[in-house]
Amino acid sequence: MKAPMPVVPARADALAVTPPAIAVEDLTVSYRQHPAVHHVSCRFEPGSLTAVIGPNGAGKSSLLDALTGRVQPSTGRVHTGGLKRGGLAYLPQQSGIDRSFPLGVLDVVMLGSWPRIGWFRGATTEQRQHALRALAQVGLIGFEHRLISELSVGQFQRVLFARVLMQDAPVILLDEPFNAIDTRTTADLMRLVQHWHAEGRTVIAVLHDMAQVREHFPLSLLLARECVAHGATEEVLLPHHLKRAQQMAEQWDEHADWCAAPAGGSVNPGLTS
Amino acid sequence: MTLLATLNALLIQPFVEFGFMRRALVACLALGLSCGPIGTLLVLRRMSLVGDAIAHALLPGAALAFVMFGFSLWAMSIGGFVAAVAVAGLAGLVARLTPQREDASFAAFYLIALAAGVMIISMRGNSVDLMRVLFGTVLAVDDASLLLIAGITTVSLLALALVYRPLVVECFDPGFLRHLGHAGAWVHGLFLTLLVLNLVGGFQALGTLMAVGLMMLPATAARFWAAEVWSLAAVAALFAVLSGWGGLLLSYHANLPSGPAIVLLAGSFYMLSLLMGRRDSLLARQLSQRAHRKA
Question: What pLDDT, on a 0 to 100 scale, did the predictor assign at position A80?
Fold first, then answer.
């Protein structure tokens, strides 16, 4: 597969750090010896805006986990071009977060400055102002003293977006950012994604809504554990690609043979007879 | 003047008059100060019952030390600490290596530990010894136990101050710190160690059965008064300290066993808070059902 063309950022100079290209090389992520991502190689150009799509269980979230370094790959590796840990902002799925937790909205947004303030340092007035601006940008003016348990799902998603804004990272990963979010909020947050793209940040988002992908995302990566297609969205979202992805995702064999692909990774020695 | 004198006689005089009451009071104050925040974090981490499990897991270690060295403070504390850490570690290990969830493996191990502890004591000691271990002897706290308890409180509060931010964040959004490259596992481990330490401290005064009461009841009661992590911890510590003070007075004036008196007072704080606390209590819900703002 040909690597997609890099997207020319509108205002690359607006960023303090230009994002590096992210190269995924022969990546396999497995759970209980079954691959969720299987020998995937692809490349995300600096400033590109990519939708990661695929059926359920296609390994989309696992790919993001591998990009952030949260899971250890079974084979292959991810090159992030010397990006520092804080240089990668990640928007998690809400299901992993305890929304009843007794924290204030501003506190959650300020978490975005963790790479700068860490465990002990207090936040500066400037960082506080930044957090308030981030809240204004996601349309939550006046919410800074509210508790997150009082917010709706959509409002909480706006708070998480504000936290990503606060992190001010050159690379942004969004895991199903518009799940269970109403159209109005989705439109607002999508504008923010477009804004990040215009600023020259690299944005990679896991999405389900094909119409949304066609409308807003120039590039797509179709995943079904393996990379089915990667490139310009209109060339990826073709019926035969989608059908193939569906078929590949449905293949689940509890006792599948051990994969002996010509990779550097170790092949499990068990059950060879 | 007579009212003041009566209050003085009721609330303060017992502590002025008797050294054992003073020591018991200081022990309760120290325990309350660190049990408040630790209990709050336990509730927030959805580990309310883990505290209970660990308190019971102390028993075989303390019992074995008791059988081998008699009623020795240090031996029993170290024995209890080792046993509880072992149970916590085993439960965590099982959860990591097998599909069994941590709460289930905790339950399994603490039940084994509890039975083993009771067995060991009853083989060698008598029922008075068993009662002492299970229910503690806050009125017999000596200077050495007092130092141990105060030391544990000091270490706990300092350690909590150090890891407060990661502890809270790890509990709210476990993925966040991992994505920034911090491992959450050792924060969890440190927290469990602090929990065990505090239960070892509480076990000297209140016994293995009651120690966890001073930790969980104030923390659950605080939920009806405060809304943020720090204020929850502060209210919980206040309730714990008040329970200690009031419980000692109750046991002094009414000639009741002190450990249960303290925990029952903490329990009544909880019931009162549940009924008429400022936030989300039954009364507050009743009152606020109709009243609402325009936006």
Answer: 85
* Residue B7 falls inside a structural domain: no
Is residue B5 assigned to a domain?
no
Within 8 A of A119 by CB-CB distance, chain B residues are 162-163, 165-166
Name the minimum distance, in Å, from the CA of B240 to any CA of chain A.
20
pTM: 0.82
Residues facing residue A223 across a β-bridge: A227
Q: What is the pLDDT of residues B161-213, one digit of tens each?
A: 988 988 898 888 888 887 777 766 788 889 999 999 999 998 878 887 788 99
Answer yes or no: is B138 within a domain.
yes
B123: containing domain: 14-294
B140, two tokens: 């017999």
Q: Note which residues in 54-113 of chain A have CB less than 8 A from chain B.
A: 68-70, 85-86, 88, 90, 92, 96-98, 101-104, 108, 111
Q: B97 CB near a chain A CB, below 8 Å?
A: no
**CB-CB neighbors (< 8 A) of B166 in chain A:** 119
* Predicted confidence (pLDDT) per residue in A231-257, tens digit: 899 888 888 888 888 887 777 666 677
From the number of C-beta atoms within 10 Å of its C-beta (0-12, 13-18, 19+), residue B234 rates as: middle
- B116 touches B60 (CB < 8 A): yes
CATH code: domain of residue B47: 1.10.3470.10
Region of B67 (left: φ > 0; alpha: ψ -120 to 50; beta: rest) is alpha
d(CA B33, CA B238): 8
Nearest CA among B62, B84, B70, B78 for reference residue B133: B62
Judged on CB neighbours under 10 Å (0-12, 13-18, 19+), B213 is buried
A-chain CB neighbours of B228 within 8 Å are: 102-104, 147
Interface of A with B in 142-171 (CB under 8 A): 147
Q: How far is B233 from chain A (nearest CA, A)?
A: 11
Neighbours of B280 (CB within 10 A): 13
| Sign of CA pseudo-dihedral A114, A117, A122, A125 | negative
* Angstrom distance (rounded) from CA B180 to CA B164: 17
Query: In Å, what is the CA distance from B16 to each residue of A71, A240, B1, B9, B255?
Result: 60, 87, 19, 10, 18
